[in-house]
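[09:14] KT: can someone run the structure on this one? pasting the chain below
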Amino acid sequence: MKQAVIFDLDGTLSDSIASIKYCGDRAIAPFGYGPFPESDYKYFIGDGAANLVRRALTASGDAELVHFDEAFELYKKYFAEDCMYQVRPYDGIPELLEALKERGIRIAVLSNKPHDQAVDVVESLFGKGYFDVIQGQREGVPIKPDPGGVFAILEEFSLTAEDILYLGDTATDMKTGKSAGAFTLGALWGFRDRRELEESHADAVIGSPPELLEYI
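[09:31] RB: done, structure tokens below
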């Protein structure tokens, strides 16, 4: 039996694409760029806020990233203010988390979202102290797909990779979980498709949150 589950945040626990688009579009608008549809932002995200801004600028035609510094500062400002804009948990997630807690399984979040906003989103959706660990992007700490974040959570839990499930919705997540040696599940309700998850060597792909319980 698994003893803990590590969750990605955006596209896995929270449907947050509206907030990311809202902040991203405003960050690039002063330079005459955007807006982009949510479908594009689903591919801009996944590797941290800086890479999101780089991808949005590149898609706008700023291949040399001339406006990166200014746009990135704007994005951080707007996202600090509006990270909860139209954000909600996916259907079935609250029930899944309650089922895990009833079984005594610990739960953690590992996100490339800036740490303060990751904490804000998780605590706003689920309550303060509900998750055992919340870990977002911090200065000087490698972002996913580096497995260091998984290892840090394992150390805090005094567990090994064999003791956990890792759930995420992108190739970055699959690479993170696999690199850490964890059983890695792909979430089909998130921002990417089955092909990406399978090509990234997910151990299994699930179509709804309750299916995770089959792997505990």
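[09:33] KT: thanks! The CA atoms of residues 45 and 51 lie 7 Å apart.
[09:34] RB: yep, looked fine to me
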